[in-house]
Amino acid sequence: MVAKTPERITKKRWATGDHARLLLEAFRARHAQTLADRPALDARLEAHLPDFWAAYASVYGTAFEQAAWALRLLDAALRGAIRR
User: Fold this and answer.
1) Does residue 67 contact residue 19 with C-beta atoms inside 8 Å?
2) Alpha-helical segments (H) within the chain
3) In whole angstroms, how far apart are CA 24 and each of 1, 14, 78?
4) Would residue 27 be called left, alpha or beta, if left means φ above 0 and alpha means ψ between -120 and 50 degrees?
5) Cβ neighbours of residue 11 under 8 Å, at least 6 residues apart?
6) pTM for this structure?
7) I need a labelling partner for 23 at 20 to 30 A (CA). Which of 9, 59, 79, 84 fits?
8) Gap between the Cα atoms of 2 and 20, Å rounded
């Protein structure tokens, strides 16, 4: 099954190469209220998402389709953080 890439990240925008920023924008849009209620979590996300993306991309590549999969991993991490 292929994950659907959020509409906020288009192939044209992805081609700019600013992948970590695009993922951060999309993730913030998906979880705006949750992150607004947890500013420390949002700050950690901003600080560490570039490192996450660099590690992820080194294994899975930077193809446009990877944006959706990376966001799914971030979604799972957020759910885990909320449960704790």
Assistant:
1) yes
2) 11-14, 19-30, 32-37, 39-60, 66-83
3) 24, 13, 13
4) alpha
5) 64
6) 0.86
7) 84
8) 21
Q: How far apart are CA 34 and CA 30, in angstroms?
A: 9
Q: Which two tokens stand for residue 47?
A: 């600080």
At 73, the amino acid letter reads: L
User: Are the C-beta atoms of 35 and 42 separated by less than 8 Å?
Assistant: yes
pLDDT, tens only, 6-24: 557 999 999 999 999 999 9
34-56 per-position pLDDT tens digit: 999 999 999 999 999 999 999 99
As a whole number of Å, the end-to-end CA separation of the chain is: 30
Written as one letter, the residue type at 31 is: H
Q: How many C-beta atoms surround the C-beta of residue 44 within 10 A?
A: 12
Q: Find where tokens 């944006």 sit.
A: 67
Token output for 40? 């420390």
Tokens of 12: 């044209």
